[in-house]
Design brief:
CATH topology of the largest domain: Rossmann fold
CATH class of the largest domain: Alpha Beta
Strand content: 15-25%
Shape: globular
Helix content: 25-40%
Radius of gyration: 21 Å
Number of domains: 2
Structural class: alpha/beta
Oligomer: single chain
CATH architecture of the largest domain: 3-Layer(aba) Sandwich
Number of strands: 13
Distance between the termini: 14 Å
């Protein structure tokens, strides 16, 4: 089996994926009889294209400028060439545009429309147009995987396969590491939101414009994806009641502490409602985690609570989720070929 791959977006996540693939490509061939070839890598100003497979060793060599590679073509776009490259898999890692889902949405639709499987690390298309994407994938008999969109390497979406004898009834989660870091620092040090935010920015945990995080939009998008995937809902981010953390004060945290509580920014899905906002959490609750960790608490019908926790962001963390999705697709395609 040959798997011809195109990667759209060679930023941090995309580059980390290429490094992991280089390390694991022999393992995939040995274990699953699959020869992975990266046929194209698209960036905003052009692409590396080699239908016989780009040399990852050469591409990732230290101090190498990939735009000086002999296979670099200026000013070509993924949307123009996806249909022409005889691809099997398209991996989307471009930056998120939260209001439109573009350009990732167009890339995903174009790939699926040409019978190409898709893996995405991009949240926006799925919290805006989940049903459209899933319906097209079903129609074209394609796989579409997006584990990296929620909690990065924490296998929260794929856990559904391991709970088919059970039923998830409620989701309660901490889905934004930036907000969790800020609230943790405010609670332990008594500092203001502004001071904690500045600290998070200096450490690289928060963007220069942190509004998507601190206003709750990022967590809301992830909650939509979780609810649609694990609870079989069909929601968009427009269905979420969203409140951020900008109004939380050290005094509010201190008052909560005196009663045995802290304040966490929670994402909750239950009884067909999606809610993101600050909530009181008992000090001894599993939800009282610190730092930049993510935590997802799944309430199940037959087994009580199941809790997943881990680092919810990072280049290699997201890349490992993409690689997991790739191997899952390879295994599923092998079954189809055998049958």
């Amino acid at each position: 089996m040959e798997l011809k791959i195109c990667l759209i977006g060679k930023g941090n996540v995309g580059t980390c994926f290429l490094k992991l693939l280089k390390e694991r490509i022999s393992f995939i061939k040995e274990m699953y009889n699959c020869d992975c070839k990266v046929a194209a890598i698209f960036e905003y100003d052009g692409a590396l294209i080699n239908k016989d497979g780009i040399d990852l060793e050469e591409l990732l060599a230290k101090n190498t400028n990939f735009r000086e590679n002999k296979f670099w073509k200026k000013e070509v776009k993924a949307t123009d060439l996806i249909s022409e490259l005889d691809l099997d898999l398209c991996i989307e890692t471009t930056p998120t545009e939260p209001k439109t889902g573009e350009p990732a949405l167009t890339h995903i639709i174009e790939a699926l429309s040409n019978n190409i499987d898709v893996i995405s690390a991009n949240k926006a298309p799925f919290f805006l147009h989940y049903e459209r994407i899933k319906n097209l994938a079903d129609k074209m008999n394609c796989f579409v995987k997006y584990e990296a969109t929620v909690a990065s390497c924490v296998p929260v979406l794929s856990i559904k396969r391991n709970l088919i004898g059970n039923r998830i009834t409620r989701i309660e989660a901490i889905l934004n590491g930036t907000n969790n870091y800020i609230l943790s620092r405010m609670a332990t040090e008594g500092i203001t939101f502004a001071v904690a935010l500045k600290e998070a920015q200096e450490l690289g945990y928060a963007e220069a414009d942190p509004s998507l995080d601190v206003d709750g939009f990022d967590a809301a998008g992830k909650l939509v994806i979780l609810a649609n995937e694990l609870l079989n809902w069909s929601k968009s981010i427009e269905d979420v009641k969203i409140e951020g953390i900008t109004k939380i004060t050290p005094e509010a945290l201190e008052l909560a502490k005196s009663d045995g509580y802290t304040i966490k920014h929670l994402a909750i899905a239950e009884e067909n409602d999606l809610i993101v906002g600050p909530r009181l959490v008992k000090m001894d609750s599993p939800l009282n985690i610190s730092g930049i960790l993510n935590l997802i608490k799944l309430q199940t019908k037959y087994a009580g609570s199941i809790i997943l926790m881990g680092r919810g962001a990072g280049g290699f963390e997201a890349a490992s989720a993409i690689l997991n999705d790739l191997i899952t697709i390879v295994k599923e395609r092998n079954k189809v070929n055998v049958n």
